[in-house]
From TrEMBL, chain A:
<protein>
    <submittedName>
        <fullName>Germination protein, Ger(X)C family</fullName>
    </submittedName>
</protein>
<keyword id="KW-0449">Lipoprotein</keyword>
<dbReference type="GO" id="GO:0009847">
    <property type="term" value="P:spore germination"/>
</dbReference>
<dbReference type="GO" id="GO:0016020">
    <property type="term" value="C:membrane"/>
</dbReference>
<comment type="similarity">
    <text>Belongs to the GerABKC lipoprotein family.</text>
</comment>
<feature type="domain" description="Spore germination protein N-terminal">
    <location>
        <begin position="24"/>
        <end position="187"/>
    </location>
</feature>
<dbReference type="Pfam" id="PF25198">
    <property type="entry name" value="Spore_GerAC_N"/>
</dbReference>
<keyword id="KW-0732">Signal</keyword>
<dbReference type="InterPro" id="IPR008844">
    <property type="entry name" value="Spore_GerAC-like"/>
</dbReference>
TrEMBL record, chain B:
<feature type="transmembrane region" description="Helical">
    <location>
        <begin position="81"/>
        <end position="106"/>
    </location>
</feature>
<dbReference type="GO" id="GO:0009847">
    <property type="term" value="P:spore germination"/>
</dbReference>
<dbReference type="Pfam" id="PF03845">
    <property type="entry name" value="Spore_permease"/>
</dbReference>
<feature type="transmembrane region" description="Helical">
    <location>
        <begin position="300"/>
        <end position="319"/>
    </location>
</feature>
<feature type="transmembrane region" description="Helical">
    <location>
        <begin position="186"/>
        <end position="207"/>
    </location>
</feature>
<keyword id="KW-1133">Transmembrane helix</keyword>
<comment type="similarity">
    <text>Belongs to the amino acid-polyamine-organocation (APC) superfamily. Spore germination protein (SGP) (TC 2.A.3.9) family.</text>
</comment>
<feature type="transmembrane region" description="Helical">
    <location>
        <begin position="142"/>
        <end position="166"/>
    </location>
</feature>
<keyword id="KW-0309">Germination</keyword>
Amino acid sequence: MNLKYIVAFGLVITSLLINVSMPSKVIDKINMITVSGYDKAEQNRIKETVVAPTYLEQGTVEDHVYTTSADTVYGNRVKLNSKASEQLLNGKLRVAFYSEELAKQGLKTPIEFLTRDTSIDSNLFLAITKVPAVELINTVKTKKGKGVYFEDLFEHNIIHGNLPDVSLKTFEDSLKGETSDPFLPMFGIEGETAKLESLAFFKDDRLVDTLPITQADVFKMLYENVGDGTYQYKSDDYNISVENMESTRKITAEKKNGSPEMTLDVRMTGVVREYTGEQVMDQKSKIETDIAQDFTEKANRIIKSFQELNIDPLKLEDFFKSKHRSYNQDQFKEDYSDMTIKVKADMRLTGTGTRR
Amino acid sequence: MLSLKDKVTGLMVFFLITASQVGVGVLGFQSIINKYAGNDAWLSVIVAGLMVNVLIWVMYRMLKNDETGDIISIHNVTYGNWLGAFFTILFVLYLVLLAIVVLQTYAEIIQVWMFPHLNIWAFLLLLLPLIYYTISDQFRIVVGVCFLGVVYPASLIFTMIFPLQYADMNHIMPVMDHTLIEIVQSSKLAIFSFMGFSTLLVYYPFIREADKSQKYAHYGNFYTTILYVLLCVVTFLYYNQSELTDVIWPTLGLWKIIELPFMERFEYFGIATLFFSTLPNVVLYLWAATRVVHRTFGFAHKRIALILLGIVFIVSFFIEGREEINFLNDTAAQIGFVFLFIYIPLLFVLNYIKRKVQKK
């Protein structure tokens, strides 16, 4: 019988006809935002700056920058769209900047939309700006597009530099978790370029402290296993620069006399790249102990400041919780500020380059 | 009577059981089951899987001892014709409800993630001919859909490697941090993801040498359990518990982290592939419902299929938004729990007594 084919065909056609009026998004008629920046505006409003590139011909990109302010981020989108020639969409958002002022007030609400919107990538990079975000975005002049520029800046610093792995995913994880506090990189302007200046530490969602990026190598090695880092050491006798640093971090948590005691054991290996003293081979063991000692001192200073501020970006509580069934959240938080946290460091120089 | 041509081999029970269990639930069960047992909820999945194994054993015991070997005849033997028919109708309603829940949940995901302006009833028009084609004729077509519904989405297991770059052991340790009671409470929530295997009570007569197929049913359930435990562990390693509670579809969140050179967003591929896993659910439930009505009242199979599809379609007009779908899911879970853990064992006992009495 042919009737059933006619009916089935009819249903399919009806379905398509009804859904054909669905708003579609044609690639030529949309503009993908690659970078967005948020500042505090008057009356608790949020000022949003977005960068949306247009690809002209092979290899050339023209970035359009739009700025408006409104009560919510998406309130801004209405205004931004009234300025843009194509509809602005989030699908390609790579980097989001928040001004220091906003971060001190609390980031929970301004980043809320990032996790709610289905089109936004979890690998997105977040950062704080020392100057207003709009200024930072406008300062950067690049031919490869601001989105790619900032993304590359983040990526190589994470893989080879002092920046620990930071993304929307890790930030959200530390923010929502009750046993850790988040941190983010902080950017500033130097002359005509953007510059990664420091790491910004948060208590809950508020910025409370910063650590210069030059000292962040120690933090990074305390925070995670590093695959390719550097270390600079300066003493009265010599200066040394160690490259190809690899480190493994091991935490042990014990309970002594009822109060927790943590030990962070960091083992590092590296290759000498620059050395101002004499005969590095003879001095090897001395250099190794010097660096280990220097590392321990710096690490102790960093941890001390965390304890004073009562923040836990190293996720020590998280670790303690996973190892001790007797863990009690209130008790740990109370103990944290004067807990014994030891740092053990071990440095091994595995090579000296092409010279003895 | 069913001829040998209508029947399928025992091995197919593996696919039928798995396909009836795995569905849209895999996208979101992790953030539901952690309510009581937190980071130990993956143990609850194992507990739930074992309980389902026991139920499968119970069902097989009933079916093997029955002459025809389906729920209609078991009901009739146990309760007599009238009361038996009443309970059979309740079973049909349960199956139709499950089919509606699955379809609506899948449509909601498409609406939230892919096409926000999608007209759900019009979308259903596209699916209904396909479902009708599958359920209106031979059972073998349903089995074919179930087979593909297990094989195609199996490739998605490999995508679970990507989220492991953010895996944190501290999220899941220490194991057994919760009491046994909490784990069992969570396993009650996990049972919902295993539901649907009760269609076994309907398609049992369609299996060749059915009494020897029991091991495949258990294997099928083991496969589902392993799949869920794997997914659950990866999710718990990726999210910390307080974050997970806020996420509606954790599995899609896991896919969000995947970036391939040729594909910016993996979720879309995942959602589309999961259609192969959703379709067998719907098809199997509706086929079973149709079959049961046909066996009870003797109406033409095709006509019943049309009427049931009509009901599913009309209901879709009345369901809108997260809360209603959530309500539907919770109701189906409650009913299913009562059906599986109270009604089935009760039926087993009554059926046993009745048969003993009749023999004497």
